[in-house]
Amino acid sequence: MDIKVSGLNLWYGDFHALKDVHALFCAKKITAIIGPSGCGKSTLLRVFNRMNDLVEGARIKGEVVIERENILDEDTDLVKLRKRVGMVFQRPNPFPLSVLENVIFGLKIHGLANKYEAEETAEQSLKSVLLWDELKDKLNKPALGLSLEQKQRLCIARLISVKPDILLMDEPCSALDPQATQRIEELMRELKTNYTIIIVTHNMQQAARVSDDTGFMLLGELVEFAKTEEIFTKPKDRRTEDYITGRYG
Amino acid sequence: MNSKKSQKIAFIFLLLATLLIIVPVGLIIAIIIQKGLPGISWEFLSDIPRKGMRAGGIFPAIVGTLYLVSGAIIFALPIGLFSAIYLSEYAKDNFLTRIIKLAIVNLAGVPSVVYGLFGLALFVVFFKFGASILSGSLTLGIMILPLIITASREALESVPYSFREVSWSLGASKWQTIRNIVLPNAIPGILTGTILGLGRAAGETAPILFTVAAFYLPQLPRSIFNQAMALPYHLYVISTQVPNVDEKIRYGTALVLLTMVLFMNLIAVVIRYKFRKKKKW
């Protein structure tokens, strides 16, 4: 499922956080958004599931179209939108519940499944994040006792169980060690066959490794948006080149 | 004076100040136990007062206090909890909200006798509930509301924001998030505050003085519109209003009241301790 962004502007009070952003995020691809801290990349990500609505004084203009619907419309069904557009956060944040309860939390909220179906979905979700073999005997153990990597996988499983189309990942590996990071990246590659994935990352190597498209942001502007190889080998904009060669960041 | 010496003097003063706090508390408890324990017997706990309260037991006062405390909590817990949820989860941080929060904090500092007068004017006179368990419970309930609201708000606000964020991002509504994620994790804190409130309600005399307490009523109340005896007021009566009451009875009553209140506080401490050990975020 594509996301088409056009003329997107966002303000926090007087601060112009996103400036006239245009982009097309393609289905079954991983798009990375890179840029220095405070450039608006997380803000952009949070437009797609309308999490910015929660910030007081946030105003937004423009269009973000998912499946012929402008999700910025006043009457957008936020529950439906957030079921379709899931988010993985920077810090692995399972609820202080059991592993199973975490995975089926979304189903419970949406009243989707009876006990049998829920367990079925939980199994599939855990399998798709490659946790099933490790955790199938620990489904009733508290999720807070897992390792950081397991927690982050569990959070992804919790998302997948509500069957979204789009996965937003806000620096999903920044709390993990290099090996765990590598394994989560593998998982992302596997997941992209079924999902549109947008990842915000500080880590340029990560963007280069996993993404198909990359957008570079600076001071609220989407400076350049192209195929990842192009961005990293022959960037068109001077500022992009400066950033990826490490001249600032 | 060299620094070693001044350090030593400071240490002694700080230690003395601390001991000074412990000593009176310890003494009070020791004296009450020493003088009250001989008065405690099954008969004392289960019999009505006899011979103008100079003999017999304190059963009606115990029951009265239990009624009052339960009534206060039935009234104050839901209202306190709901307003705490509103204040911590829904209210925008504006002038009105800040005024409300300030008012609640100040309410906690209002002298209890003022609550008593308020209860007299509102419940006893205006609503015509008369001096009754209902009036007394409502008055005590209002008195402990600020305590419950403050404790509940703190408990709710200590649940990490990230839990809420994840829940919303999964499509849960604000209320679903509160019910499924925020409340369950706040319950120990809410319980602790509630039990401390109970202890306070059980021990206060002034709020029940005009609203419920009976001087001498050697029978159990039959409905919430009856007057009732209550431990703190009974203690006041037998200590100051009735001559020649045996010391055993006075201190025995004090011991029962003290035990009830300390027991509730102990429960609160245990809950808090257990929860702290379990908490991992």
Brief characterization of the structure:
The complex is a heterodimer of chains A (249) and B (281). Helices cover 36% and strands 26% of the residues of chain A. Chain A is α/β, with parallel strands linked by helices and 249 residues long.
Describe this structure in words.
The complex is a heterodimer of chains A (249) and B (281). Chain A is built from eleven helices and ten strands. A six-stranded mixed β-sheet of chain A has the order 6-7-8-3-9-10, with helices on both faces. In chain A, strands 2-1-4-5 form a four-stranded antiparallel β-sheet, with helices on one face. Chain A has helices at residues 41-47, 78-84, 99-103, 105-109, 115-128, 132-135, 148-160, 178-191, 204-210, 228-233, 238-244; strands spanning 3-12, 15-25, 30-34, 58-66, 69-70, 85-88, 166-170, 196-200, 213-218, 221-227. In chain A, a hairpin with a 2-residue loop joins β9 and β10 (221-227). By secondary structure, chain A is of the alpha/beta class. In chain A, α5 crosses α7 (148-160). The radius of gyration of chain A is 18 Å and the shape is globular. The longest helix of chain A has 14 residues, at 115-128. Chain A has a single domain, classed as Rossmann fold (3-Layer(aba) Sandwich). Chain B is 75% helix and 1% strand. Chain B is globular, with a radius of gyration of 23 Å. Chain B contains eleven helices and two strands; from the N terminus they run ααββααααααααα. Chain B has a two-stranded antiparallel sheet. In chain B, α4 packs across α6 (133-157) and α6 (133-157) packs across α8. The interface between A and B is medium-sized, with 28 and 19 residues.
Give short descriptive properties of this protein.
heterodimer; A: 249 residues; six-stranded mixed sheet; 36% helix; B: 281 residues; two-stranded antiparallel ribbon; 11 helices; 2 strands
Query: What do we call the CATH homologous superfamily of chain A?
Result: P-loop containing nucleotide triphosphate hydrolases
Helical region count of chain A? 11
Overall geometric form of chain A: globular
**CATH fold annotation of chain A:** Rossmann fold
**Elements of chain A, N to C (H/E):** EEEHEEHEHHHHHEHEHEEHH
SSE series of chain B: HHEEHHHHHHHHH
Percent range for helical residues of chain B? over 70%
- Output the CATH topology of chain B: MetI-like fold
Instruction: Estimate nothing, just give the exact number of structural domains of chain A.
Output: 1
Radius of gyration of chain A equals 18 Å
